[in-house]
Design the sequence.
């Protein structure tokens, strides 16, 4: 082959290789074009996704704004009903507001407040507990607001989680630590509560609220004298603080200084009459009329009713007792002139019922009042026949702020019932759990009427009860009553005795340690066996 031919052959190979290279390049360009095209589609799809997300966000914001606007409208309507005194329709509006914007804490707080003002503590607590699970709380202030509302509604134990989160966000905030300590106290976690209030006071040693919380924790630990010292420290910072004065009053009573106890109780929020009567402070009532206004629960009203018989009170030409509606028939049957609390009454003077010991300078042991001062006035036995009957009540009103401490599970009474097979036990329990006893226990027909309850009590040989209103009624009637008390009792029972000057027919059985109801029931069972063995005693 000539050199020319070799060059042509070589050139042909080069051209051929170049063609292959160009062809490969074309494929690469084509592939790149497809990649670019795919990338463009991806970008386009991403843009659509972002656009859709924006629409979703805008819709969600619009829906939330619409829900909150609807809630505001409903709350405004509810406020109008509130101003008219129509609590039922106001609460209905607030409930619809909660349904419209369940995430919004404010509407839950408004509803709970309305329920409290309407006297339905249990409903308010349920509303706030629901708020714990559904509301959006993005900051410490919102958590604190819900926690404070729970405490104010008597559900402080449920507020612990709120205040723990507040403290986590504000670890050096004395108010947050103090609030957590108070909630832990409500939950019964007294050791942890004490540690927390100690921390709060290390941050703010002269905070009156924290000093009072320390006093209350020591009270719940049955350290009454130390509690008094903390209470005095709180009052040294804020001398006229109502809560601190009331706490000191409780402590004075527990420690036996009743005179000072009554003085401090005058700091409480006083009931006022629906009329123009002047406050009675002990001046002569000759030729005058007096309205005595019942306070707090029915048991409190029955306990203090004895002081209406004082000679200074009886100087009045007419004494009217304003009482709980369910107690009016009982008072009327016993000769008291009574009206329902908050009803209009024309009178020259008025006095809150629990101020009578202070005005009259008397105490529980005042000897001139009649015992008993209430009777059933029944026409027939309310219960079927039987010679040895013992009534049982193991729980009080669930809306009471201390009910979890003063009430017990009904199952704890089963050993007592089974041991004393020769006794007819009768349940006078009202409300939830009234049928939670063995079948052989007679279930008394329950009623909101205290006159009916008095008639039922009058058929018993003995009542065994926790510290609730029916124990006061039995004591006022002179019915033998054994009252079972928590480790830290209510102020009126003192700190240690098994007897009380309030009711000669009452015997007290006390917990020796916090929450130990089984030992109390055991002591009652032993005493019941001794009483049954004594001829003619039961």
Sequence:
């Amino acid at each position: 082959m000539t050199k020319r031919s070799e060059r042509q052959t070589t050139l042909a190979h080069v051209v051929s290789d170049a063609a292959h290279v160009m062809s490969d390049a074309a494929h690469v360009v084509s592939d790149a074009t497809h990649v670019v095209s795919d990338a463009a589609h991806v970008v386009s799809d991403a843009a659509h996704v972002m656009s859709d997300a924006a629409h979703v966000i805008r819709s969600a914001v619009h829906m939330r704004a619409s829900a909150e606007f609807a809630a505001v409208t409903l709350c405004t309507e509810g406020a109008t009903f509130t101003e008219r005194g129509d609590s039922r329709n106001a609460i209905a509006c607030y409930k619809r507001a909660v349904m419209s914007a369940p995430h919004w804490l404010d509407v839950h707080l408004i509803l709970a407040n309305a329920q409290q003002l309407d006297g339905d503590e249990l409903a308010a607590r349920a509303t706030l507990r629901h708020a714990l699970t559904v509301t959006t709380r993005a900051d410490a202030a919102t958590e604190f607001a819900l926690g404070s509302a729970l405490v104010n509604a008597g559900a402080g134990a449920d507020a612990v989680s709120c205040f723990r989160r507040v403290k986590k966000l504000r670890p050096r905030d004395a108010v947050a630590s103090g609030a957590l300590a108070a909630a832990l106290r409500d939950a019964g976690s007294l050791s942890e509560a004490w540690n927390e209030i100690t921390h709060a006071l290390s941050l703010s040693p002269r905070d009156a609220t924290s000093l009072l919380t320390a006093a209350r924790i020591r009270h719940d630990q049955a350290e009454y004298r130390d509690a008094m010292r903390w209470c005095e420290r709180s009052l040294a910072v804020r001398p006229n603080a109502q809560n601190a004065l009331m706490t000191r009053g409780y402590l004075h009573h527990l420690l036996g200084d009743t005179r000072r106890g009554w003085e401090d109780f005058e700091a409480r929020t006083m009931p006022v009459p629906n009329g123009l009567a002047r406050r009675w402070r002990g001046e002569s009532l000759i030729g005058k009329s007096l309205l005595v206004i019942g306070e707090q629960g029915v048991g409190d009203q029955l306990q203090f009713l004895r002081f209406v018989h004082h000679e200074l009170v009886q100087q009045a030409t007419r004494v009217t007792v304003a009482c709980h509606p369910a107690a009016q028939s009982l008072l009327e049957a016993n000769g008291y002139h009574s009206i329902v609390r908050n009803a209009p009454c024309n009178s020259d003077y008025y006095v809150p019922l629990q101020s009578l010991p202070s005005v009259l300078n008397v105490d529980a042991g005042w000897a001139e009042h009649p015992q008993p001062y209430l009777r059933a006035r029944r026409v027939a036995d309310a219960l079927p026949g039987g010679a040895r009957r013992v009534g049982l009540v193991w729980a009080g009103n669930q809306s009471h702020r201390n009910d979890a401490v003063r009430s017990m599970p009904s199952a704890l009474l089963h050993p007592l019932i089974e041991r004393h097979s020769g006794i007819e036990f009768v349940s006078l329990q009202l409300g939830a759990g009234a049928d939670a006893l063995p079948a052989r226990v007679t279930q008394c027909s329950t009623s909101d009427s205290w006159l009916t309850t008095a008639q039922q009590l009058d058929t018993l040989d003995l009542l065994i009860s926790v510290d609730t209103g029916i124990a006061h009624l039995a004591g006022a009637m002179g019915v033998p009553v054994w009252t079972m008390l928590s480790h830290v009792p209510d102020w009126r029972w003192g700190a240690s005795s098994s007897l009380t000057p309030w009711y000669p027919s009452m015997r007290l059985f006390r917990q020796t340690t916090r929450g130990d109801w089984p030992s109390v029931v055991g002591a009652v069972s032993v005493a019941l066996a001794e009483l049954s063995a004594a001829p003619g005693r039961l």
Notes: The longest helix spans residues 3-83. The two ends are 144 Å apart (CA to CA). Confidence is low (pLDDT under 50) at residues 1-63, 379-387. Residues 77 and 253 are 47 Å apart (CA to CA).
